[in-house]
Design a protein that fits this description.
The protein is α/β, with parallel strands linked by helices. 29% of the residues lie in helices and 22% in strands. The protein has 15 helices and 23 strands. Helix 4 crosses helix 5, helix 7 packs across helix 8 and helix 11 crosses helix 12. The longest helix has 22 residues.
Length: 512
């Protein structure tokens, strides 16, 4: 029989030591040497179980138990059923954890070593952590890590979880469906835990996020009754708690295919927001990650991280129709294409260009989806305060696709209606007069003191926000990367603490 704690260690501490010991995914041979050693030496071995009394943790550790050990069975008062406890389900569990911790504390106070067994890793969704939070600050404690179900599932599938710059997301299946969908869509690779009763919700979320075809199902990895299958083929009624859904690495094999598995292509127009990754929505991240091909203006395409096996097709900013036709032709050949657009693709951007071409007879059967993004106007407004707090109009100053007379007519109508104005495409190297013309026109209806937000490269490395007055607006300071927000008669510019000026438009408009 293995000796208990040696005399020298016993003299150093009047109390016993607490050990949270990870047992790995199920196979006793995957228990670490340190874990096996501590289990054999422990005075007390504690483990959780449901009311039926069977403990998976104990069954894994059984070969390492020794004679004369005290076993503390920590039996949950409930699992998923309802309770009449005054504190509800959470109150009943908290009371149980307090009682269990008190039982273990009694052993520790008596100088006994206590090992708490935990399937997988003790601090990874493990029951041990509830004992750790209640006891570790009071007693000498050691946590022994174990192989997690995440690593076990990947090993059994024989597929990498992450490669290169990919990130891994671990998601509890107990989240609401909308939240699950968003997390899945945004993930490179993912493992979804705690299936069982949550499986139908998880499956719907995977389908809504467009990831169902990639999802793999692993049940009881390294245990008796192990099962591997494509998740789409699994019946929900057969799914136990000890199962996970896996979205493996997206990095392509050495010989990548650029066609979708089913040969059916599509076009998704994705808004990337005004700048880098912080402005991407989860849905946009998911669409970009799933694409076989990315198509877009080279400057905007460069904002999207490169992925092995994914083809990129950059072009000039003035060939929107040709770019749309190229994307749709790729989709007709079975490619899953993302057309990348800055800001929101439906605001002076690529969504209209794609749909104009997609409505031609030859492309009408190609699926087209629009994924929104943060608009430049809203991003700029957030940096300055709340200038769009009341009614506002959005106008492009570019006269490349419409006559200046139309632009002027719309500016005049918005000014007469006393709307806040968001002015896109104010100027470029070939268009240098529009800002001055717009300023002079607006001054016919607005006071020279009207606040103007000049926002350049919002979210980017050269971001600059200036707040000036309409009468002082200098066209020389405006370029194609600038957006202008022109206040209404009600818009306020107020200096707050630290000399910071904020701009806001009241939600209420005067009745007279």
């Amino acid at each position: 029989m293995t000796d208990r704690l040696d005399s020298q260690d016993r003299q150093e501490s009047a109390t016993g030591r607490l050990y949270g010991v990870g047992l790995g995914p199920g196979d006793p041979s995957l228990v670490t040497v340190r874990a096996a050693e501590l289990i054999g030496k422990a005075d007390v071995v504690a483990y959780h179980s449901a009311r039926h009394g069977r403990s998976i943790a104990r069954s894994i550790a059984e070969r390492y138990l020794t004679d004369g050990q005290i076993e503390e069975k920590l039996v949950y008062p409930l699992t998923v059923e309802t309770t009449d406890h005054p504190g509800g389900y959470r109150g009943a569990l908290d009371e149980f954890y307090e009682e269990a911790a008190a039982r273990l504390a009694a052993h520790l106070d008596a100088g006994r070593d206590v090992v708490v067994l935990a399937e997988g890793d003790p601090l990874f969704y493990g029951s041990y952590q509830h004992m750790h939070k209640r006891l570790a600050h009071r007693y000498p404690t050691e946590v022994v890590p174990g192989v997690t179900s995440v690593s076990a599932a990947a090993a059994r599938l024989g597929q990498p979880l992450t490669e290169a710059e990919e990130t891994l997301t671990v998601i509890p299946g107990t989240l609401p469906e909308e939240e699950l969908t968003a997390r899945i869509a945004a993930a490179d690779s993912a493992v979804i835990m705690k299936l069982g009763r949550t499986f139908p919700t998880v499956r719907r979320a995977l389908e809504r996020a467009g990831r169902l075809a990639d999802a793999q199902y692993v049940e009881r990895a390294f245990m008796d009754g192990e099962r591997l299958a494509p998740l789409a083929e699994v019946e929900g009624e057969t799914v136990p708690y000890f199962s996970v859904a896996v979205l493996p690495s997206k990095v392509a094999p050495l010989e990548p295919t650029v066609r979708t598995a089913d040969g059916v292509g599509s076009v998704t127009v994705v808004g990337t927001g005004p700048a880098g990754p912080l402005w991407l929505t989860p849905e946009a991240r998911g669409a970009l990650a799933e694409a076989t091909d990315l198509v877009g203006y080279t400057t905007y395409l460069d904002r999207v991280p490169e992925r092995p096996g994914q083809r990129r097709h950059g072009s000039d900013n003035k060939v929107e129709s040709e770019r749309a036709e190229f994307a749709l032709d790729l989709a007709r050949r079975g490619h899953r294409v993302c057309v990348v657009s800055s800001g929101d693709p439906g605001v002076f951007a690529m969504a209209t260009a794609v749909l104009e071409v997609a409505c031609e007879p030859v492309y009408r059967d190609v699926p087209v989806r629009i994924v929104p993004g943060m608009t430049a106007a809203h991003a700029a407004a957030s940096r300055a305060g709340a200038p769009l707090g009341h009614d506002y109009a959005v106008v492009s100053l570019s006269d490349r696709l419409k006559p200046w007379d139309v632009v002027a007519k719309r500016l005049r109508a918005a000014a007469e209606a006393d709307l806040v104005l968001a002015l896109y495409n104010p100027g470029s190297k070939s268009r240098t007069t529009q800002v001055g013309l717009a300023r002079d026109l607006l001054l016919e209806h607005r006071a020279p003191e009207t606040p103007v937000v000049m926002a350049r490269d919002v979210g980017g490395p050269t971001e600059r926000i200036r707040i000036v007055r309409l009468g002082e607006l200098d066209p020389e300071l405006v370029d194609m990367r600038t957006i202008l927000l022109i206040g209404s008669s009600q818009t306020q510019a107020v200096e707050r603490g630290g000399g910071v000026e904020v701009v806001w438009t009241p939600r209420r408009y005067p009745e007279d």
